[in-house]
Amino acid sequence: MESLIMILVGILASVGTYLILSRNIIRVILGTAIYSHAVHLLILTMGGLKKGDVPILSQSEGPFTDALPQALILTAIVISFATTALLLVLAYRTYKTNGSDDFHELREMPDE
Amino acid sequence: MKETILLLALTFFMIAIGLLLYRSIVGPTMPDRAIALDTIGVNIISAIAIVSIILSTTAFLEAILILGILAFIGTIAFSKYIERGVIVERKGDS
Amino acid sequence: MLNVKEILEWIAVLSVLLASIISMISAFGMIRLPDVYTRSHAATKSSTMAVLACLSGAFIYFWVHDGYVSVRLILGIVFVFITAPVSGHLVTRAAYRARVPLAEGSGDDALKPVLFGDEQTSPTITADNVDKHE
Amino acid sequence: MNNLIVLPLIIPIITAVVLVFLRDQIVLQRIISFVTMGFVCIVSFILLNIVQTEGIIRLDFSGWMPPFGILFVADSFSLLLVLTSSIVTLICLLYAFSMMGQRYEKMFFYPFVLFLVAGVNGSFLTGDIFNLFVCFEVMLLASYVLVAFGGGKRQLRESLKYVLINVVASWMFLVALAFLYGSVKTLNMAHIAQRVAEVGQDPLITTVAILFLIVFSLKAGLLLFFWLPGSYSVPPTVVQALFAALLTKVGIYALIRTFTLMFPLQQEVTHTIIGIMAGLTIIAGCMGALAGRDVYTIATYNVIIGTGFILIGLAVGTESAMAGAIYYLIHDIVAKALLFLLIGMMIYLTGETVVKKMSGLIQIYPIFGWIYFILMLALAGIPPFSGFIGKVLIGQGAIEAHSYILLALGFASSIIVLYSLLRIFLASFFGETTISPEDKKPIPKGAYTSFILLAISIIYLGIGAESIAVYVKDAAETLMNPSIYIDAILKG
Amino acid sequence: MKINDVILRTVVKGVIFIILTLGVYLFFSGHNAPGGGFIGGLVLGSAIVLLYITYDLETVHKKMPFDFKKVAALGVLLATGTAVGSILFDAPFLSQTDGYFNIPILGEKHLTTVTIFEAGVALTVIGTLVTIILSIGEDE
Amino acid sequence: MTIDFAIILIPFIMAALILLFNKQLRKKYLGWIVLIIPVSLFLILTTYIPRIANGETYTHTYEWIPAFNLNFTTYIDGLSLILSLLITGVGSLVILYSIFYLSMKESLHHFYCYLLLFMGAMLGVVFSDNLMVLYAFWELTSVSSFLLIAFWHHRKASRAGARKSMTITVSGGVSMLTGFLMLYVMSGTFSIREIIANVEKISEHSLFIPALILILLGAFTKSAQFPFHIWLPDAMEAPTPVSAYLHSATMVKAGIYLVARFTPVFGGEMVWFWTVTGVGLITLFWGSFNAVRQTDLKAILAFSTVSQLGLIMSLLGLGSVAVHLGYSADTVIYTQATFAALFHLINHSTFKGALFMMVGIVDHEIGTRDIRRLGGLMSIMPFTFTIAVIGSFSMAGLPPFNGFLSKEMFFAATVKILQLDVFSIESTGILIPLIAWVASILTFVYCIIIVNRTFLGKIKPDIQEKNPHEAPLGMLISPFILITLVIAIFFFPNLLGEYILKPAMASVYPTFPSAAEMTPHISAWHGFNIELLMTIGVIVLGIVLYRLLKYWKKIYRIFPQNWTLNAIYERVITTSENVSESITNRYMNGKLTHYFIYIYISFVVIVAGTFVALDAFSWNPRLDAPVETYELLLVFIMIFTAIGLVFAKSRITSVLLNGVLGYSVAFFFVIFRAPDLALTQLVVESVTTALFLICFKHLGALKPEPSSKRVKVSNGVISILVGATVTLIGLAVVNYEKFETISTYFENSYELAGGKNIVNTILGDFRAFDTMLEVVVLFIAGLGVYTLINLKAAKKEGADIENK
């Protein structure tokens, strides 16, 4: 399972990278979104997969699966959500003011 | 045996999700996608229920409810978007 | 031998299996049916059925197996039961208002003149250009 | 336990939130934010002195013993940086008061600055690697908003690039964190260090360390500085100054901390790579500074050169080089802030960014001009100003470690720094003035005060280097002997 | 032309209570079961967003005249406030305490300061979520 | 505070006072007030002469940065005394001169302030024992001379000259600093005295020769030695008093001082001997050779300064051979070169100072310094003429002026060195006297040019119209004092030798037992020997060459214009600027995509490179948890979705696909027993998808990428490499099981923190701090979104102070 998820993570990272390398703002932002999916899975895998029960004491006697990565991912999810929200709005404002969503075109636009 | 059946059911759900995914990618219209996604959501609810049975834990039952809520809100938002082009209206007495 | 508990568990499991099969069928319907309106039948009706069966199965299973009566599952069932028709309705209506065409051979569309007037020549949105229209 | 340690982080946060409620009372906002930063300065100074007598102190949040909980660790190195950055922020605020404009101030300018400071201070103080990530994000989120503060066309464009590159950097950070946790199964930096030492930093851990190197290089502008010139030239002047003073420094801090505490055992691999990267950074920075036709380009590439120079200290890795790196880091925080404030003022006064289109500023604004002159000398490492002692110590360390190429690059870069800044001085400050008496704008008092205060700091850091030598020595010693840090955390 | 939303609004009126209940439940169950301040806040926030979707900005704003930025700020203050509070009792920053209190009517209850902390989290999440949606919505 | 410390400090204090009380001081008196400083300093310093002559030295230490051995140690010995006397003595005269020279319209307070700064810095250089302090003052002289040269900064040439001198001298300073640091690393001390005392210990060190060369570079740039001399002629843009001060007596002598100071350290090395002597001789020749062709009086003097500095430098080089040989009765004779160097150092200051002041007078009264426009001034300005004649003749090495004495000694030294057979002098040594002799002839030629073209011949008509007259008395005082010295030294050279040069010799050769032995008796007539013959040859050939000047001047045209050192310097600078610009603009092209490519390539190369190079990979799939069919299906769904995203043609599809990915991740969270995560991921993903939809609606339609196939393929390769790096390291990490995780501790969450949901107790208690900051992050994002949307760019009439 771990190897499978690692490969999945790799593929997600590749796709994310490919999207980030494109010129369109939308694709780039989607790339970052895929990145966050990939890394969340990655962190989760680092604690070992399916090695124990749901980490809630009332539900089982143990052994429990590693709870720490889960806590980390929760924090990471929130942060990536916050960042994405800001990024989206920034992209939207950039498009509104500059009138283009192509990074190469954006570069060539005259200032102000 | 029960476990095997449950896994089989889970696999069926996965296949269903895969098919719906095809529909949501291909479209061809926005409502198609909305419906497909709504259905995907519903299927995931079922899948989560099955996983809960397999893992014999009740920890995921909240997820079922939440997914239901989200699928609902999502579909409403989507249809509103299709219908009116905006999701949150500034003003209106419609 | 089979006791009541065992039987009930089997019922739960089988209802889950049934649910998965229904869901598969509904998914095939989503693929095969010709237009959005017909597909929405497949989706809303049979999928709701599937999820209800599945959740009920899960409910029974937990009840029997762990002696755990899950309010959340009941709540979930109720919720899906209430909202599924509404969302189906809204999407289909939105589709119609967005002028997604009916499949060929659907018969007369009596609503069209009422809703959109007599603009026969108005460009209908074809399946292909809906996205571009956004 | 010493709850003082958390104050440099928590006080700005709480104040920032309170300021949100005081949105329309701008004067009150100013007073509160100023008092807050002053308070933070005092607290960090007290802490710095406590550390001298009591050694490294730590605060285990909620009382959970390391390595299980999160903790703040205060050693001389981090506190020196906290103190310097807080003082610089305090002075930059003075500039902001007179130059920012009410429209900006109403849009939560001060809260964002305070959040930025909180993130920076948190990054300096934390002893938990994941918490470092979170503190980085606090800082970055605030910086994302600040870099786009104003919403001009070019500004938004560059901000978008800045944000995207940093998002990718943060992703890499998370990947590195995942690998680190996956291999050593702990997050406390001291504990990581201990465990890494146990296995003698085997190849896999070194690879993870290199991944961290990439991550922090992106933040510090070490070789991967592509985002820097664009994004540092668009926001309002104060923000530029704060960015130049703080943001890259946090990356440098993280690099130094990581490679002295956690992964110090494979120096022939890690430090060689750092050395190569630092060298290339300096070369690229020098080329950029030479190529610059406008003040922003010259200034931003100077930031890059500064980064490369400090990291030579890390790459060399002797104790004197480390002390030099710390000195230079402190100097760079102050000097780069002043550089950007001055340049912002030049542009404000003349309305131009191209060096050759300005002329004769020193005739109208003599003090302004001389402060620039002093800054120029300080940045070039000319004694007795602040850059000198750091430069000498890094050079000494490089000789001790036989890193002659880095030494040559580092010292040559100071000539290029001087040359590029001299060009601005000769063209823009000297010569006949082009500003007609009617167009002459006065420099606001607040701005002048901030210039003078920063200039005094630069002179003081040079002439009075002895006064902080005891802290710097202690910091360098702690960095060179990670066991001091580890013992302070894990024993007792 | 007007679009009739009667069905939607009727259903939402009922559904919203289910959502709110769930949100509150998740918020309180956090310490022993899945849930907690963050997810509770998100659910409650989604409920408010649902209201905005089914009605419109002005109508909802009349009923809920909050500045959601300040709600979020209040949340942060609560969260940091409990953290700072521990300093006053000379305990390490962020120390949480709990205890069994005898509250009239409700009887003996287990209360922890974590709940206040989580409440802060929840408020922030609600405030931020709604602020983001509204800021974008109002800009159109 | 002792006097020697005060001597350094007083000029700085005065400079500060001038700036502070600029408004209160009347411009008229400013110069006179300033004059008090150097004069009194000079008088104080003269009191040291007898004591120093007795062989005493004075050391005082003030702590500056003792933590790093940087202490302010002053050290007064014979060598520093010579220089300090020159600095204050010539300084007094120059200030006196400039009181009359500069008009009241100039910003005099700046001028005097810079001049005092410079004076203080020079005194600091010669009195410092600590290398770092010496370096500090060294750079300060560069900086203050920069300010002096750029004093008329509205003139473009002034700025250019200032920039050039600053760049070159500071570069030399940096190299010198490096050398100093090497010395420190070798010896462990910054004190020059201690280094000299321990020279045997360090001379075998591998850094010894590099340090030597680096320090010499510093000295050469400062003393305008070939090929670094190019800054000096350009520095003539400074006001003439500045030139008289900096370029005759002080700044350029700092390099000489440094070489003399370090002779005891490095003198024994062959590299030192040949570099110092060779560079000195080349400079001597090149300076005099170029001086002949100049038409600007000041330029002639500039090149002549270069040339004379080369002379002194080569003498120091010749003298260093004595250090190598060590003390014996036979070797003492070779120290005479050094003696001559120090002697000429003083002589040069006197006559060159006078000459500069003379040029200043001419320029001031006539309005031009171009010898093609001058002529016949003898009758108008007889006093100035006298100064010019005496100064020039002394420089040309004619009796009865002091230049004659030192020049004779120079010739003697060059000839004497031929007797040695160390350092392979026997093979190429003959060049030494030859070059010296040729250069002296050229020196003679330009000396004649200075006198003849300016003062003899006919007065040009346009000058006649201006009604020129002799300079005011005030301006003549200073050069006359110098001229008097020129003659006085000729007649009483041994006074100088006994009291001033002897102790200096002792400091250059500390290992030699007797300074008196190294102090020859100077006499104008020393027999009919080869030196005298050479001098006669110089005079004869010089006159001949001057007469034939117009015939052989053509050889200057042999050198192509764009291959002069100046042109090369300019070209190097412009080329490096242009090359930098084109390279920088090439890779810093503003394209985000490219930046990402650089980042990813670095990522792959460095990380994967290390990974492969260290052979860190390991993989053991047997440790893995089993895979169920539905999980495999889910993985495939995710892969297809992800790949579908790459090819998606509409915004909505992309967003929805991303949502599907998010939901699948949530489902994985379910499978991997993470209920809290699943909940959060579900909600967050939905909200994110909604945000995507809302925002993307406002962005343009998703067009197909306009990139070429090649770009796509290379992007694809990079992407795959990134993914592969992550996967491979991930696989290795998964199988890395050397440590127990710390999270077992958290399984006691109920006892420890009173919660049964472990994840939640971690978030709310064990790692509550993360949660708190995460809340802050969220809040910043919310507030930021609000700000971003509501803070639009200011309109033109915006009331902001800062309009960008």
TrEMBL record, chain B:
InterPro entries: MrpF/PhaF-like
Membrane topology label: Multi-pass membrane protein
Pfam families: MrpF_PhaF
Signal peptide range: none
Any one GO cellular component localisation term in the record: plasma membrane
UniProt feature coiled coil, ranges: none
Major localization listed first in the record, in broad terms: membrane
UniProt keywords, alphabetically: Antiport, Cell membrane, Ion transport, Membrane, Transmembrane, Transmembrane helix, Transport
Compartments where found: Cell membrane
GO molecular function annotations of the record: sodium:proton antiporter activity
The organism's place on the tree of life at top rank: Bacteria
Stretches that traverse the bilayer: 6-22, 34-54, 60-82
Family membership: Belongs to the CPA3 antiporters (TC 2.A.63) subunit F family.
Record PANTHER family: NA(+)/H(+) ANTIPORTER SUBUNIT F1, NA(+)_H(+) ANTIPORTER SUBUNIT F
Identification of the protein by name: Na(+)/H(+) antiporter subunit F1
Organism: Ureibacillus yapensis
Lineage, broadest ranks: Bacteria, Bacillati, Bacillota, Bacilli, Bacillales
UniProtKB/TrEMBL annotation, chain D:
Stored Pfam families: Proton_antipo_M (PF00361)
Gene Ontology cellular component terms for the protein in this record: plasma membrane
Record GO terms (molecular function): antiporter activity; NADH dehydrogenase (ubiquinone) activity
Transmembrane segments: 6-22, 31-50, 70-95, 107-124, 130-150, 162-184, 204-229, 241-263, 269-291, 298-316, 328-349, 361-382, 402-426, 447-472
The UniProt record lists the keyword Transmembrane: yes
Membrane topology: Multi-pass membrane protein
GO BP terms, alphabetized: ATP synthesis coupled electron transport
Domain NADH:quinone oxidoreductase/Mrp antiporter transmembrane: 128-416
UniProt subcellular location: Cell membrane; Membrane
Keywords: Antiport, Cell membrane, Membrane, Transmembrane, Transmembrane helix, Transport
PANTHER family membership: NA(+)_H(+) ANTIPORTER SUBUNIT D1, NADH DEHYDROGENASE
The family this protein is said to belong to: Belongs to the CPA3 antiporters (TC 2.A.63) subunit D family.
Name of the featured protein: Na+/H+ antiporter subunit D
Species: Ureibacillus yapensis
UniProtKB/TrEMBL annotation, chain E:
Organism expressing this protein natively: Ureibacillus yapensis
Protein name: Na(+)/H(+) antiporter subunit B
GO cellular component, one term: plasma membrane
Xref: InterPro entries: CPA3_antiporter_subunitB, MnhB
Source organism superkingdom: Bacteria
Localization annotation: Cell membrane
Boundaries of every Na+/H+ antiporter MnhB subunit-related protein domain copy: 7-131
Annotated TM spans: 7-28, 34-53, 74-94, 114-136
Family classification: Belongs to the CPA3 antiporters (TC 2.A.63) subunit B family.
Swiss-Prot/TrEMBL keywords: Cell membrane, Membrane, Transmembrane, Transmembrane helix
Recorded topology in the membrane: Multi-pass membrane protein
UniProtKB/TrEMBL annotation, chain F:
Domain NADH:quinone oxidoreductase/Mrp antiporter transmembrane span(s) in chain numbering: 128-428
GO terms of biological process kind: proton transmembrane transport; sodium ion transport
Keyword Ion transport carried by entry: yes
Transmembrane segments: 6-22, 29-49, 78-99, 111-127, 133-153, 165-185, 205-221, 242-260, 272-292, 299-327, 339-362, 374-396, 430-452, 473-492, 528-549, 595-617, 629-648, 655-672, 678-696, 717-736, 771-789
Annotated Pfam families: MbhD, MbhE, Proton_antipo_M, Proton_antipo_N
Protein's membrane topology: Multi-pass membrane protein
Keywords, sorted A to Z: Antiport, Cell membrane, Hydrogen ion transport, Ion transport, Membrane, Sodium, Sodium transport, Transmembrane, Transmembrane helix, Transport
Domain MrpA C-terminal/MbhE: 714-789
GO CC field: plasma membrane
GO MF term list: antiporter activity
Residue ranges of every copy of the NADH-Ubiquinone oxidoreductase (complex I) chain 5 N-terminal domain listed in the record: 66-112
Limits of the MrpA C-terminal/MbhD domain: 637-699
PANTHER family, per the entry: NA(+)/H(+) ANTIPORTER SUBUNIT, NA(+)_H(+) ANTIPORTER SUBUNIT A
Family designation: Belongs to the CPA3 antiporters (TC 2.A.63) subunit A family.
Name of the protein in question: Na+/H+ antiporter subunit A
